[in-house]
Amino acid sequence: MRFFVFASMLLSLILLAPSCSKYPNGPSFTLRTKNNRMVNDWKLTSYLINGVEFVDAVPETKMVIEKDGTYSRYATEMVLNQLHSAFEYGTWAFNDEKTSLFLLKQGADLPVQFTILELRAKKLVIQYYNKVTNVTYISTYSTDK
Predict the structure, then answer these.
(1) Distance between CA 10 and CA 30 in Å, rounded?
(2) Which of 34, 12, 30, 31 is nearest to 124 (CA)?
(3) Coil, strand or helix: which one is 33?
(4) Which domains does the chain have, with CATH numbers?
(5) Global pTM?
(6) How remote is the C-alpha of 8 from its chain's centroid?
């Protein structure tokens, strides 16, 4: 009987205890690794500049993160009734704690660091802070996969 009471209390503590997630809005428990969740075809669904939504003013943007450590990002928009496209590619990596995402565009000398706010199987939220202009950018991506 003592074992049953102890096991019940232990299970209750495990289920009710606050979880330790690396990301402020990330899942508390998942069976998928961070690499597995990051590798995907992402579509930009929200773009905030200092807390103000700008997704309507931003072109359709997609980002593909590959398992081999490469990424590509492209955007299309209509300007004066003409379709304009922008494309970039390079390599990606996590920092040691896997709390930041580094994107090194091909031809660039330094990678751009994004803080990962949320990393789920179908949602990615990253933040970039520009120290020079004191502006914070938050990009939310989603996927159907």
Answers:
(1) 21
(2) 34
(3) coil
(4) 2-142 (2.40.128.540)
(5) 0.77
(6) 37
